[in-house]
From TrEMBL:
Annotated Fructose-1-6-bisphosphatase class I N-terminal domain residues: 57-181
Record Gene3D superfamilies: 3.40.190.80, Fructose-1,6-Bisphosphatase, subunit A, domain 1
Record EC number: 3.1.3.11
Cofactor dependence: Mg(2+)
Magnesium among keywords: yes
Biological pathway: Carbohydrate biosynthesis; Calvin cycle
Cofactor remark from the record: Binds 2 magnesium ions per subunit.
UniProt-annotated location(s): Cytoplasm
Protein name: Fructose-1,6-bisphosphatase class 1
UniProt KW keywords: Carbohydrate metabolism, Cytoplasm, Hydrolase, Magnesium, Metal-binding
Length: 322
């Protein structure tokens, strides 16, 4: 590895010293230990085969790629060994029963942003952990006791919370494991960096379009400042950046058929993000209320999602309610 002039030995406690060895901590650790081999396959691109090859269609009608399915099977194997009762995944229509006597269930998106497989753009994964219950996954996100994500970029980073704040760790190749990089992550209440798909603006509710007009007016407009825009087309990438730098993300409901309830899946995309954002002091809303209070209508049901710094999200919601 290239050494910079001021580089020294790797800092940060190993992940195993932070996550407890039982309960939700052990499950999160099992997921994170499964990630380096997944990251290595991502880094190999098309050298051994085509991770972007279409191999099927998921419940939402999205095309499944070879890496989507392989990542699903890889993480499910880790969860089975960790004693998880059942798993809900974006890449499987039905809930998978793994260990009938298990104490916890896991909802996950094994590869977030898979439209960017093979082009070097950020990808990730999301998960939440729930105590086993008769309702299974058909509960509001408040039932979750832990959540986490992985961001596969120029580094492999993970973020997690067991309900007592957010920590972020980075993979240390020399050690062969993750080291804690930040603890007690707190979102800036206000930061002028926005993430949204500008090509969809014309379909948005009038209140949001009014907000965008004021955003574009910059420091001379009602909001009184200039904004920057970032759009990675992977919610995990935006989550990771916003936790580190602040800002806001929007994927609202719009007027197009198939988008009237947003486009992100409530249980295994929106809920983990909302859990982490709230633990970092931010807000995550479906446009009407907290995402974690929303009751799923199906295992793969969708939800609008607006998340980020508290002040930024409150401003957006004030326009949306007009």
């Amino acid at each position: 590895m290239l050494k910079l002039p001021d580089d020294g030995p790797a800092r940060g406690r190993p992940l195993e010293e932070v996550l407890p060895g039982d309960g939700p901590g052990a499950i999160a650790l099992a997921i994170f230990r499964a990630l380096p081999s997944l990251a290595a396959r991502l880094a190999a691109g098309r050298l051994h085969g085509d991770p972007d090859a279409i191999v099927g269609t998921n419940d939402s009608g999205d095309r499944q790629k070879a890496l989507d399915v392989a990542a699903h099977e890889h993480v499910v194997a880790a969860l089975r060994a960790a004693g998880v009762r059942q798993v809900l995944s974006e890449e499987a229509e039905d809930v998978a029963l793994l260990n009938p006597e298990g104490a916890y269930d896991v909802a996950m998106d094994p590869i977030d942003g898979s439209g960017s497989i093979g082009i070097g753009a950020p990808l990730g994964m999301l998960f939440s952990i729930l105590p086993a219950a008769p309702e299974g996954f058909m509960r509001p996100g408040r039932a979750a006791v832990a959540a986490g994500y992985a961001s596969f970029g120029h580094s492999v980073d993970i973020g997690f919370s067991l309900g007592e704040g957010v920590s972020i760790a980075t993979f240390d190749a020399e050690m062969g494991g993750f080291r804690i990089a930040r603890e007690g992550v707190t979102l800036k209440p206000s930061a002028p960096v926005l993430a949204y798909n500008a090509s969809n603006e014309r379909h948005w509710p009038e209140g949001l379009q009014a907000w965008l007009r004021d955003v574009r007016a910059g420091k001379d407009g009602p909001l009184g400042r200039d904004y920057n825009m970032r759009w990675l087309a992977a919610a995990v990438g935006e989550l990771h950046r916003i936790l580190l730098q602040g800002g806001a993300f929007l994927y609202p409901a719009d007027h197009r058929p198939g988008y009237r309830n947003g486009r992100l899946r409530l249980i295994y995309e929106c809920t983990p993000i909302a859990f982490l954002i709230e633990q970092a002091g931010g807000l995550a809303s479906d446009g009407q209320g907290p995402v974690l209070d929303r009751l799923p209508d199906s295992h793969h049901g969708m939800s609008p999602l607006i998340f980020g710094g508290r002040e930024e999200v409150e401003t957006i919601l004030s326009y949306l309610s007009r």
